[in-house]
Amino acid sequence: MGYRNIVIASAASVYCRDDQLIILNEENNKVPIEDISAIVLENRQSKISLAALEQLVSSNVTVYLCDQQHLPSAVVLPFYQHSTNAAVIERQEHLSVPQTKQIWKQIVVAKIQNQGRCLKERGDKEGTYYLTELAKTVTSGDIHNVEATAARYYFRRAFGEQFSRTGDDGRNSALNYGYAIMRGLIARLLTAYGFMVIRGIHHGNKYNSFNLADDFMEPLRPIVDLFVLNNMSKEDMLTPDLKHALVNLLGVDVVSGGQMHSLNYGAERMIQSFMRICQQDEKDLVIPELVQLRQHQYE
């Protein structure tokens, strides 16, 4: 599994040769493809060969493309990468309503718990306690929309009473950037395991091609939140260094099934557990738990 996350912020020509990714710009870099986890093509003047795109995608590298605002706007996903794609989709389609409600409950509980852990890392004991207790009230399918109650409380405690996700606050750009990175990671993993990404567990917008990814990225949002809280104020701008650091969140430590793994692998373990649920082998998701933001150390 790759561990390097690359952001190409200046105009560059990108191609592959001898299993190396060649990046020709003012620095001219060469990186083994097997070492790469994700690559962000931010500069709209950059050029990448089709052969490079195909090799990156087939090597399970998440490739992000950015818009005019330099925010990730697309992710390159493979077709039929999983050998039993049709069988996986059939199992996904045959999940019962009680099963999908239980899956969504687990996702919401994990999201609220991670929000509580974020506040804990910020030294907010009262907020941590409230969210920990609130997570215990989530019912099957979250029919009482505890997720929304938690979100209103959490954002006020974390970002301040005046904070709005639609407001003119420099931190919103960083949140949007980080969330897009998490969304792309989950979309790539779901596709790699053969799932139909447009068919969500809870999200069901017919104009959204990533409903299932939007379901499973929810517990990962507080990881982005914690980084932004630790590194930005309302007046700060989203700099290239901050963007690179947000992409590098893919390599931070998380607790997964009682073990310490990188977020990349913790997210994959979550999708693997969803696969086992679809196969009727298990009932519980293995969802990454937020810890201190430190890069995972590979042995």
Brief digest:
The protein is α/β, with parallel strands linked by helices and 299 residues long.
Major sheet, described briefly? 4 strands, mixed
**Beta-strand content bin:** 15-25%
Structural class: alpha/beta
Tell the overall outline.
Answer: globular
| Rg over C-alpha atoms, rounded to the nearest angstrom | 19 Å
Helix content: 40-55%
How are strands sequenced across the largest beta sheet? 1-5-7-8
Number of strands: 11
Provide the succession of SSEs: EEEEEEHEEHHHHHHHHEEHE
**Poorly predicted ranges (pLDDT <50, ≥5 residues)?**
none
Separation, N- and C-terminal Cα atoms: 13 Å
* Number of helices, counting only DSSP H or I runs of 4 residues or more: 10
Mean residue pLDDT: 92
Task: Provide the fold topology.
Elements: E1 4-8, E2 13-17, E3 20-24, E4 29-32, E5 36-41, E6 47-48, H1 50-58, E7 62-66, E8 72-76, H2 85-93, H3 97-121, H4 125-135, H5 146-159, H6 170-192, H7 211-217, H8 221-231, H9 240-247, E9 252-256, E10 259-262, H10 263-278, E11 289-295
Parallel strand pairs: 1-5, 2-6, 5-7
Antiparallel strand pairs: 2-3, 3-4, 7-8, 9-10, 9-11
Helix pairs in contact: 3-4, 3-5, 3-8, 4-5, 6-7, 6-8, 6-9, 6-10
